[in-house]
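Weekly sync, protein design subgroup
Attendees: M.S., D.O., the rotation student, P.L. (late)

Item 1: inverse folding check
M.S. brought a backbone from last month's batch and wanted to see whether the design step gives back something sensible before we order anything. D.O. pointed out we never logged the input encoding, so this time it goes straight into the notes. Structure tokens as presented (115 positions):
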């Protein structure tokens, strides 16, 4: 059974930081490209950051310089460090794992940036 379980979301003030984690089981984690997506109310889901099995990373322009994606293959976990958070970062954040035609999603974790 494949499971991707996100944690670390919450309420934070503008300028603050959060670190999201996604613990994976039931997959050969090291071969998967892992990504973080987000969906705000009334908006489509969008890619935030992605890391390949080889460690190459890619970011949405809106988060470059503020967010960092990383992975720990020994722990089957992918992280998203989010710094200098803005109200427009408010969304449900989803973890995604992709390998060839296989594609898995977590249940999402809410991030709210508000004073």
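Designed sequence read out in the meeting:
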């Amino acid at each position: 059974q494949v499971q991707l379980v996100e944690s670390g979301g919450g309420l934070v003030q503008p300028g603050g930081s959060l670190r999201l984690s996604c613990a994976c089981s039931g997959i050969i984690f090291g071969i998967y490209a892992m990504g973080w997506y987000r969906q705000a109310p009334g908006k489509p889901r969008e890619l935030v950051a992605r890391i390949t099995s080889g460690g190459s990373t890619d970011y949405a322009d809106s988060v470059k310089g503020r967010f960092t994606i990383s992975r720990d293959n020994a722990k089957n976990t992918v992280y998203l460090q989010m710094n200098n958070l803005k109200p427009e970062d408010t969304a449900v954040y989803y973890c995604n794992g992709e390998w060839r035609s296989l594609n898995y999603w977590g249940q999402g974790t809410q991030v709210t940036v508000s004073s």
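Discussion: The first strand starts at residue 3 and ends at 7. Residues 49 and 59 are 4 Å apart (CA to CA).
Action: P.L. to compare against the previous round before Friday.
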